[in-house]
């Protein structure tokens, strides 16, 4: 069996690594000849909307998926005419547009920060009047890792902000004084079965995910699973979905979804009975979903910009390196580390050793 | 970094899968265009002793290794003239010849069954006289999985046995009434550091490994580690080595070594902090060896000849499929399953479910 993947970054690379032991080979469509997924499968080098590239991707594969949300929904729709193409194009279209996404949350009765649709400086000024500050202004599409955002600390910051963000459609969201951020990763099969990983506590540095760790919180866990299930069912979703929440007063406030495997779930490769990557492949390929039980105590660190001294990192017991084979560049995610252990105490000790060696270069 | 591997079977495929997260890509040399490792790296299709193929394999790689012992030692020696080539050619040459191998055991003072070198029917008859029966007659080279062997139950069985096994150099070994079989997998770095996995209990069916499970036995473990270290040091070994023993009266009797990653260690992918494959790559690439601590309770099953119903297998929690992408054929190893769990009880329950689904076709 073969699987087609639109996008050839590290998520595609790790999808291919999960697919191969299932006997499934992978083919990628990506405009960059340097796509790091090419080391794990066949690369078709063409734009995401290139008709010939899309045709080539679909040849000889049994199903297709995508690895990030900047893929045009039309590509997925086109592929879905001849093949199972999951997650569905409508889920991709929803997740790509922060205003459509937040509107879906509101329609489903899911707690989310107050938000307004911004089409020009005039609607921005009116929204600032209504919602007040602090608030966050974000491009509706194509933003990630804190890019395409501006914090409005006071009403003065709104002046010229529409032009500053490129005069493109925006969303303004009330700033939430949250205590911490979590994500919930769920997987849904074509027959509607769902599995969920434990909630993940995420720490960001300068807008980029730095550290993720699964946590046990039964009240938040059941809140999260119910919200994620509601969204997956309403989108008739198939595959892995990540849902990011703010936590305040033991309540979840919906931030955003990613219709794909997610950076905060990379620890599942070593830390779960079945990884988010394998479960995504299983869902897309029509195989039964696997157990999400956690294996020991585990945490994940992103390596950003610059690799640490690998010999020192690998000498720490329980450290699993995932080097994506990308060149070093300030602010770029080039690898991650998962730390496994038998106890919380052992995990803390190993994490301290790891943190002392990281030289994350955020370039900001 | 790139690694060259002589041989492109499932061991090569799993070496490549372990190397990629370390940022190491893999290139294979194998005469078969159907090599299943090709899905995980670049394949150079040529005979193991083909000068041009060897040259192509060595281009752009930082080190080379091999994935099975039927590779000609001369190929490794040739590669070692320009590159780190591990394990060393002398280890390969020793392991390829059962008589040389057993002689090394004897020279190092390692317990082994009584054995004799057989060059013709005459030396065979004389050996039968000296050692008595039952005994096992094996080709000195190129045998595996019980192939190229003949059991001599009584002296009459010796008649014509030399011709029966192809009139090639043989070894005759006294039959050991062992209680069970274990293997010890060790890894040695170029600087002489050694790590060992826990002893593995191996169950064979018709000469082919069926089930492997790590066991705790501190007395046998220390015996085994001391023997394996002695052999690795004496061969100036670099990489993963598997040592098979018979167990009788709480003593180890050396059976044979494999100078490579080994089928009985496949459970280390999910069951150890660092797999035998990753530690082999680390050793060959000059990286520090990783922890061999075991993660939970774990067992491995070979899938031979015919795949079970994959949907049913994948529905059992904690079951990890490794489908090698090879076509089904009686007696052929085409996949393996690792079962992970949190307790011995849970492992037993999961293994029972697995065993009920296996349809191993030994074709005999």
UniProtKB/TrEMBL annotation, chains A, B:
<dbReference type="InterPro" id="IPR013815">
    <property type="entry name" value="ATP_grasp_subdomain_1"/>
</dbReference>
<dbReference type="InterPro" id="IPR005875">
    <property type="entry name" value="PurK"/>
</dbReference>
<dbReference type="GO" id="GO:0005829">
    <property type="term" value="C:cytosol"/>
</dbReference>
<dbReference type="GO" id="GO:0004638">
    <property type="term" value="F:phosphoribosylaminoimidazole carboxylase activity"/>
</dbReference>
<dbReference type="Pfam" id="PF22660">
    <property type="entry name" value="RS_preATP-grasp-like"/>
</dbReference>
<comment type="function">
    <text>Catalyzes the ATP-dependent conversion of 5-aminoimidazole ribonucleotide (AIR) and HCO(3)- to N5-carboxyaminoimidazole ribonucleotide (N5-CAIR).</text>
</comment>
<comment type="pathway">
    <text>Purine metabolism; IMP biosynthesis via de novo pathway; 5-amino-1-(5-phospho-D-ribosyl)imidazole-4-carboxylate from 5-amino-1-(5-phospho-D-ribosyl)imidazole (N5-CAIR route): step 1/2.</text>
</comment>
<comment type="similarity">
    <text>Belongs to the PurK/PurT family.</text>
</comment>
<dbReference type="InterPro" id="IPR003135">
    <property type="entry name" value="ATP-grasp_carboxylate-amine"/>
</dbReference>
<dbReference type="InterPro" id="IPR011761">
    <property type="entry name" value="ATP-grasp"/>
</dbReference>
<dbReference type="GO" id="GO:0046872">
    <property type="term" value="F:metal ion binding"/>
</dbReference>
<dbReference type="Pfam" id="PF17769">
    <property type="entry name" value="PurK_C"/>
</dbReference>
<feature type="binding site">
    <location>
        <position position="98"/>
    </location>
    <ligand>
        <name>ATP</name>
    </ligand>
</feature>
<dbReference type="GO" id="GO:0005524">
    <property type="term" value="F:ATP binding"/>
</dbReference>
<feature type="binding site">
    <location>
        <position position="204"/>
    </location>
    <ligand>
        <name>ATP</name>
    </ligand>
</feature>
<dbReference type="InterPro" id="IPR054350">
    <property type="entry name" value="PurT/PurK_preATP-grasp"/>
</dbReference>
<feature type="binding site">
    <location>
        <position position="138"/>
    </location>
    <ligand>
        <name>ATP</name>
    </ligand>
</feature>
<dbReference type="GO" id="GO:0034028">
    <property type="term" value="F:5-(carboxyamino)imidazole ribonucleotide synthase activity"/>
</dbReference>
<keyword id="KW-0658">Purine biosynthesis</keyword>
<feature type="binding site">
    <location>
        <begin position="173"/>
        <end position="176"/>
    </location>
    <ligand>
        <name>ATP</name>
    </ligand>
</feature>
<comment type="subunit">
    <text>Homodimer.</text>
</comment>
<keyword id="KW-0547">Nucleotide-binding</keyword>
<feature type="domain" description="ATP-grasp">
    <location>
        <begin position="102"/>
        <end position="285"/>
    </location>
</feature>
<dbReference type="InterPro" id="IPR011054">
    <property type="entry name" value="Rudment_hybrid_motif"/>
</dbReference>
<keyword id="KW-0067">ATP-binding</keyword>
<comment type="function">
    <text>Catalyzes the ATP-dependent conversion of 5-aminoimidazole ribonucleotide (AIR) and HCO(3)(-) to N5-carboxyaminoimidazole ribonucleotide (N5-CAIR).</text>
</comment>
<dbReference type="Pfam" id="PF02222">
    <property type="entry name" value="ATP-grasp"/>
</dbReference>
<feature type="binding site">
    <location>
        <position position="181"/>
    </location>
    <ligand>
        <name>ATP</name>
    </ligand>
</feature>
<dbReference type="InterPro" id="IPR040686">
    <property type="entry name" value="PurK_C"/>
</dbReference>
<keyword id="KW-0436">Ligase</keyword>
<dbReference type="GO" id="GO:0006189">
    <property type="term" value="P:'de novo' IMP biosynthetic process"/>
</dbReference>
<dbReference type="InterPro" id="IPR016185">
    <property type="entry name" value="PreATP-grasp_dom_sf"/>
</dbReference>
<feature type="binding site">
    <location>
        <begin position="255"/>
        <end position="256"/>
    </location>
    <ligand>
        <name>ATP</name>
    </ligand>
</feature>
<feature type="binding site">
    <location>
        <begin position="143"/>
        <end position="149"/>
    </location>
    <ligand>
        <name>ATP</name>
    </ligand>
</feature>
<protein>
    <recommendedName>
        <fullName>N5-carboxyaminoimidazole ribonucleotide synthase</fullName>
        <ecNumber>6.3.4.18</ecNumber>
    </recommendedName>
</protein>
